[in-house]
Write a structure and sequence with these properties.
Largest sheet of chain B: 6 strands, mixed
Helix content of chain B: 25-40%
Strand content of chain B: 25-35%
Helix content of chain A: over 70%
Structural class of chain A: mainly alpha
CATH architecture of chain A: Orthogonal Bundle
Number of strands of chain B: 22
Shape of chain B: globular
Distance between the termini of chain B: 38 Å
Largest interface: A-B, 33 and 39 residues
Largest sheet of chain A: 2 strands, antiparallel
Radius of gyration of chain A: 21 Å
CATH architecture of the largest domain in chain B: 3-Layer(aba) Sandwich
Number of domains of chain B: 2
Shape of chain A: globular
CATH superfamily of the largest domain in chain B: P-loop containing nucleotide triphosphate hydrolases
CATH topology of the largest domain in chain B: Rossmann fold
Number of strands of chain A: 2
Number of domains of chain A: 1
Order of helices and strands of chain A: HHHHHHHHEEHHHHHHH
Strand content of chain A: under 5%
Distance between the termini of chain A: 38 Å
CATH class of chain A: Mainly Alpha
Radius of gyration of chain B: 24 Å
Number of helices of chain A: 15
Oligomer: heterodimer
Chain lengths: 341, 500
């Protein structure tokens, strides 16, 4: 009898930890379970998330329709992929501010290749992905080779790449090939389109990369202590560069899918995308400056942000209020994760 | 000597989460005495000191200062009562000058009350330093440009210039050279005369006996007793701290060194050392002694490829090598345990498993994909073999004690299967029981044929473990001692440049 009562709290804690694991980094879960006391605010974020869902269910009869859910997922594809690349960069202790222009660059390049050069679809997509990797390589090279601050380097490329986009085309490009829209935009698995499936596969893939590959573990460790990793005989420069290449690739993929969904590539698209991506990572438990963060947590962050947008849209709230609300959510998430001294 | 108790701590109790780190600790100290607090890592010394200096809040108990119960809510309230503490972690502002650090928050201004009169301020700082006998520090230089030992001196000076009634020194000597240590002891004598109470924490028992009047022993958060330094000896003290006899501190080895594995000829690095030549055999432990700043660490870093050499040759197993990077060195079978584990030894935000496997991930992976089951098994093996506590491989390294952190680094290099191991201060900030364990690990490694270069500032360690000892001074090798011919006096005078 005594045994069963004493076991109960442990299982409860286990479940709570599992939920927290979804949203916060593994490291943090262990931190709080050993270090500080558990406080309401540790769970408040999760509670808020479910309250949002509940609110949506009770107040809007549109929310749980297949159409809306499908829309919701299609809308988070862009931020989902960008956030994933951002997470990898944040894990190294860096930041990538240039994701927005890279999205625009790849969107406009893929559209241009299809519309103006009449290249086959796969070739056009491949070229624009390569463009993304190339910009990432440049960022990573400058940061790791010359030990420049990631914030400054990517701030510089943020402007420079946007300029390149306009050099390539000052006017929007509309790829008229209908297959470019249908291949990514037709539901193939339930309500999910190929673009959604790509994103849904990318997250476990990233989790696998971060947890189960030598490069992933190295990237994780670099954010904690770069010098210790170097002295363990690991090529730090290469892994930092790899992180920015992944971020470039993810942003480029997001750009292709965005162009496909909208059916048009605007040279101005992607302004402020870096903020949404950083927000998703932070809400999901990533630590700016390195040392913590998970793919699953970031997914939670992406879905939460998407949910807020979706709900406020359903309730016809002006987008300015959406921004205020998002800002508050981010502050709240950081507050909840604040370490007790 | 004042006989009445100046500081009384009653039933001090502190919990972190549900773990009690201090259990009803009672102790008292007098004005003008040096009161040492000793105990193993995790005994609660630092927590007790942090409570007494207001940095940590107690859960229960009472602190009585000069007959009056006091509440220490913050370091600031402790400062106002004249309590100053110097912790193991530096609290200096690294990008400010020495002057600014010493006078932080009390910078004198000129007549307008807004502008700082820099010449006057620097002069004031110099005067204050001279008053406590710390001369020769350039007060204008930035703290980040100073060596670790000088930073420690600034840290101590910052507390001492306020003329505290109670001065708490938490492991002040760990990074100090002999000369600086002498200055610290002179300062302590001076403060004593001004009837300051000095609470002194140190792992080095020799040092404790040299400086302390009375010694209080803590064990597992409990008060074990207070003894007069003159009426006890090291063995008794260790028994009180550990609760048992430790037996042989330095294990006996049976095999003699084998074939030569490393040969270094005329190694030099501009500005730090020159013309270093020595060799190392399989299974040999080569001690390397020298004062802080003598270039020992630089030599180690250069052999490991962490820093570039300007000239010289290295032969490993008869082959001419030139490690361009730590990566090349690790591949060649060289390992380096650095002197500052927090700065460049461990990834604090990662788990034991990640840290232990960091240098050997390629051995358990194929095409970059880790075999995590194999990795975890190997890590568990090491954790068990070195008895790292707690023995959970997903525990964060940040949460381990200093001794266990050091073992994690050792485990990392054991897994990399290095044949040449360079240990730079392997027992710094490590408690006695763990020290003995680390000595056992080192000599076991030597027995298995690994060549070891042991850099240490602790002479007993060098003498107890090494087959041969080298001495460095100002970037040069100035002496080599066989085990038989070495004594503490000989090594020390050689390192300090004193001719006998």
């Amino acid at each position: 009898m005594k045994k069963s009562t004493s076991r109960n709290p442990i299982t409860n804690a286990g479940i709570l930890n599992w939920f927290k694991g979804l949203f916060f980094s593994k490291n943090l879960t262990e931190d709080t379970s050993l270090g500080g006391r558990r406080r309401w605010v540790d769970y408040a974020f999760l509670v808020a998330f479910f309250l949002l869902l509940l609110l949506a269910a009770s107040m809007s009869d549109v929310f749980f329709t297949e159409r809306n859910i499908s829309n919701l997922f299609r809308q988070i594809v862009t931020n989902g992929l960008i956030s994933l690349g951002m997470l990898v960069v944040i894990l190294t202790g860096g930041i990538d501010l240039s994701v927005g222009p890279v999205v625009a660059f790849s969107a406009i390049v893929v559209s241009g290749m299809i519309q103006n050069q009449h290249l086959p679809l796969p070739v056009a997509i491949l070229i624009s992905l390569c463009v993304g990797i190339l910009t990432g390589t440049f960022n990573g090279f400058m940061i790791s080779k010359f030990k420049l601050q990631p914030f400054i380097v990517t701030l510089a490329t943020l402007g420079a790449i946007r300029g390149l986009v306009y050099v390539y085309s000052q006017t929007p490009i509309t790829p008229e090939d209908p297959s470019f829209r249908t291949i990514f935009g037709t539901p193939i698995l339930g309500p999910f389109t190929l673009s959604v499936l790509i994103m849904l596969v990318a997250f476990p893939l990233a989790a696998f990369f971060l947890n189960r590959t030598t490069a992933g573990r190295a990237i994780f460790a670099i954010g904690g202590n770069e010098e210790a990793v170097r002295l363990a005989g690991i090529n730090v420069q290469w892994h930092i560069m790899l992180a920015y290449m992944i971020s470039g690739l993810c942003s480029a993929a997001a750009g292709v899918l965005l162009a496909s969904r909208l059916g048009i590539a605007q040279p101005s698209v992607g302004a402020g995308f870096e903020l949404d991506a950083i927000a998703a990572c932070v809400i999901g438990g990533a630590i700016l400056g390195g040392g913590g963060g998970t793919a699953l947590g970031t997914f939670g962050g992406v879905v939460t942000l998407g949910l807020i947008d979706n709900l406020l849209n359903l309730f016809n709230v002006q987008s300015y209020y959406q921004q205020i609300f998002k800002g508050l959510i981010i502050l709240f998430a950081v507050l909840a994760r604040r370490k007790e001294k | 000597m004042h006989d009445e108790d100046f500081l009384i701590a009653k039933d001090i109790t502190k919990y972190y989460d549900t773990t009690a780190v201090l259990k009803r600790v009672n102790f008292s100290a007098r004005r003008g005495e040096v009161h040492a607090i000793v105990g193993e890592n995790g005994a609660g010394k630092s927590t007790l000191m942090k409570i007494l200096s207001g940095a940590v809040q107690k859960n229960a108990g009472e602190i009585i200062l000069d007959g009056v119960p006091v509440v220490l809510r913050s370091p600031f309230s402790a400062h106002r009562l004249g309590i100053r503490a110097v912790y193991q972690e530096f609290s200096l502002v690294r990008h400010l000058s020495v002057t600014e650090n010493i006078l932080l928050g009390q910078m004198p201004t000129d007549r307008t009350g807004f502008l700082i009169d820099w010449n006057r301020v620097h002069k004031l700082a110099e005067e204050k330093l001279a008053e406590i006998g710390f001369t020769g520090l350039n007060v204008r230089s930035l703290v980040s440009h100073l060596s670790v030992s000088h930073q420690q001196m600034v840290e101590i000076a910052k507390a001492a210039v306020t003329r505290p009634r109670i001065m708490i020194l938490d492991e002040p000597s760990a990074v100090l050279s002999q000369d600086e240590l002498n200055r610290l002891f002179a300062l302590i004598q001076r403060l004593k005369k001004e009837s300051t109470l000095i609470l002194y924490i140190s792992h080095r028992l020799e040092e404790v006996f040299g400086v302390a009047d009375r010694i209080t022993v803590l064990k597992d958060g409990e008060y074990m007793g207070t003894v007069l330094a003159g009426e006890t000896n090291q063995n008794q003290l260790i028994k009180m701290m550990v609760g048992r006899n430790l037996g042989e501190i330095y294990p006996k080895r049976h095999k003699s060194p084998g074939e030569k594995i490393l040969e270094i000829k005329h190694l030099a690095q501009e500005g730090s050392f020159r013309d270093i030549s020595f060799s190392l055999a399989e299974g040999e432990i080569l001690g390397m002694f020298g004062l802080v700043g003598s270039g020992r660490t630089q030599v180690a870093r250069c052999i490991f490829g962490a820093d570039p050499i300007t000239s010289g040759e290295m032969h490993l197993n008869g082959k001419n090598i030139k490690p361009k990077s730590p990566r090349a060195a690790v591949e060649a079978g060289i390992a380096l345990l650095t002197e500052d584990r927090k700065r460049d030894g461990l990834v604090m935000s990662c788990s034991i498993g990640d840290n232990v496997s960091l240098a050997s991930m390629e051995q358990v992976s194929r095409c970059g994909i880790l075999n995590t089951r194999q990795r975890d098994a190997r890590v568990r093996n090491q954790v068990k073999g070195l008895s790292i506590q707690p023995a959970q491989i997903n525990r964060l390294v940040r949460q381990l004690s200093g001794g266990n952190q050091q073992k994690v680094i050792l485990a990392k290099w054991l897994l990399s299967q290095a044949r040449l191991l360079i240990l730079d201060e392997p027992t710094r900030g490590v408690d006695i029981a763990t020290k003995v364990e680390i000595y056992r690990i080192i000599s076991d490694l030597a027995e298995s044929g690994v060549g070891i270069i042991l850099i240490s500032s602790e002479l007993p360690e060098i003498l107890g473990l090494s087959d041969r000892a080298l001495v460095m001074r100002e970037g040069c090798l100035v002496g080599e001692f066989a085990k038989a011919g070495a004594s503490e006096e000989a090594l020390l005078s050689c390192a300090a440049g004193v001719i006998q």
